[in-house]
């Protein structure tokens, strides 16, 4: 019987419970789970999960693997401690749920002798090797619901600009998709330099007839004077002060924040996790490792050594759609 270890690493994102189910239900596998990401392997005790327990939380935003950002995985001594602990537990394969940084650490561990597999987990959807990452659609459901509600209050109290700041780090996938799905009048993206004169004119038109108000989505990573710093929020407030001064109308801010991470897992995320979990199961049983499971048109295995470190670019069709709707300059 093969033994696997499972961790979630980096920023949390929902949907992974469906992939965990695919792994733990197989009678030919023994699965050890760790909280705390890579560091948890060394610093915490493992636990085991039953199929009944996993099935009971498929619809929950509470992941069965608690995530954390790692210290140990970024130096040779730390990775040695991780490998040593897994060898002591007679683990054959390490399965990692995580984003870009976690992927790089997994590749190093695999190259250094610990067979490792990765399932992409980040709401930012910014890993260049895959079209989709687990958690993205669920986060978008929170963004679009917030926009629906902002349109309601804006209809009731017109003559204002309503700004919604969303996650995404230095990538604009959440902002762009959310703005399109939620009917925003403008969207501010890290990838698109902002023409403030255009934005002022656009919002002035919206506040006039027929809308009477304007809803703007702002990515947290839009650079102002300095480059984006991870964990920094509030760029919409700075931009809003400029708009308020230029237009002479009130600007109201909503920073959506961490509620984007733990949404109810969407159907898309549950099915995507199931598909990737099945691929991971097949790889484990076939003694294959050093793989990222992602989507390039369809679900597939990608060699970790060939995974590009560049970020995924914005969908060009969505960018064109946003321009046609006069949402970006």
From TrEMBL:
Phosphofructokinase domain span: 3-284
Q: Which cofactor does it need?
A: Mg(2+)
Q: Which GO terms describe its biological process?
A: canonical glycolysis; fructose 1,6-bisphosphate metabolic process; fructose 6-phosphate metabolic process
Q: Establish whether keyword tRNA processing is in the entry.
A: no
Assigned keywords, A-Z: ATP-binding, Cytoplasm, Glycolysis, Kinase, Magnesium, Metal-binding, Nucleotide-binding, Transferase
The UniProt entry's GO CC annotations, sorted and at most eight, read: 6-phosphofructokinase complex
Q: Which reaction does it catalyse?
A: beta-D-fructose 6-phosphate + ATP = beta-D-fructose 1,6-bisphosphate + ADP + H(+)
Gene Ontology MF: a single term: identical protein binding
Q: Per its UniProt record, what InterPro entries does this chain match? A: ATP_PFK (IPR022953), ATP_PFK_prok-type (IPR012003), Phosphofructokinase_dom (IPR000023), PKF_sf (IPR035966)
Task: Please verify whether the record's keywords include Nucleotide-binding.
Answer: yes
Annotated metabolic or biological route of this protein: Carbohydrate degradation; glycolysis; D-glyceraldehyde 3-phosphate and glycerone phosphate from D-glucose: step 3/4
Cited Gene3D superfamilies: 3.40.50.450, Phosphofructokinase domain
Subcellular localization, as worded in the UniProt entry: Cytoplasm
Q: SUPFAM superfamilies attached here?
A: Phosphofructokinase
The enzyme's E.C. designation: 2.7.1.11
Q: What class of enzyme is it?
A: transferase
Record's PANTHER family? Answer: ATP-DEPENDENT 6-PHOSPHOFRUCTOKINASE, PHOSPHOFRUCTOKINASE
Task: State the family it belongs to.
Answer: Belongs to the phosphofructokinase type A (PFKA) family.
What name does the UniProt record give this protein? Answer: 6-phosphofructokinase
Species lineage: Bacteria, Pseudomonadati, Pseudomonadota, Gammaproteobacteria, Enterobacterales
């Amino acid at each position: 019987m093969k033994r696997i270890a499972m961790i979630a690493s980096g920023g949390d994102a929902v949907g992974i419970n469906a992939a965990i189910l695919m792994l733990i239900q197989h009678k030919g596998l023994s699965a050890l789970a760790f909280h705390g990401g890579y560091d948890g392997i060394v610093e915490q005790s493992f636990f085991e999960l039953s199929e009944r327990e996993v099935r009971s939380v498929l619809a929950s935003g509470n992941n069965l693997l608690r995530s954390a950002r790692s210290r140990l995985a970024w130096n040779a001594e730390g990775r040695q401690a991780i490998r040593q602990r897994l060898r002591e537990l007679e683990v054959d394969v390490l399965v990692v749920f995580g984003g870009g940084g976690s992927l790089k650490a997994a590749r190093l561990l695999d190259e250094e002798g610990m067979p490792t597999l990765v399932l992409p987990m980040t709401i930012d959807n910014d890993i260049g090797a895959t079209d989709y990452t687990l958690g993205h659609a669920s986060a978008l459901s929170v963004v679009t619901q917030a926009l629906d509600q902002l349109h309601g209050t804006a209809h009731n109290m017109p003559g204002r600009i309503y700004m919604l700041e969303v996650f995404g780090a230095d990538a604009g996938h959440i902002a762009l998709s959310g703005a399109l799905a939620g009917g925003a009048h403008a969207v501010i993206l890290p990838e698109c330099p902002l023409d403030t004169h255009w934005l002022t004119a656009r919002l002035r038109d919206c506040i006039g007839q027929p809308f009477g108000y304007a809803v703007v989505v702002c990515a947290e990573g839009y650079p102002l004077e300095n480059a984006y710093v991870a964990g920094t929020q509030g760029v919409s407030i700075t931009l809003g002060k400029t708009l308020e001064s230029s237009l002479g109308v009130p600007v109201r801010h909503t920073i959506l924040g961490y509620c984007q991470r733990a949404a109810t897992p969407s159907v898309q995320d549950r099915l995507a996790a199931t598909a990737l979990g099945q691929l991971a199961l097949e790889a484990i049983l076939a003694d294959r490792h050093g793989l990222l499971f992602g989507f390039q048109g369809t679900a597939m295995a990608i060699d970790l050594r060939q995974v590009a470190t560049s970020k995924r670019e914005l969908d060009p069709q969505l960018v064109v759609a946003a321009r046609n709707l006069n949402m970006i300059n």
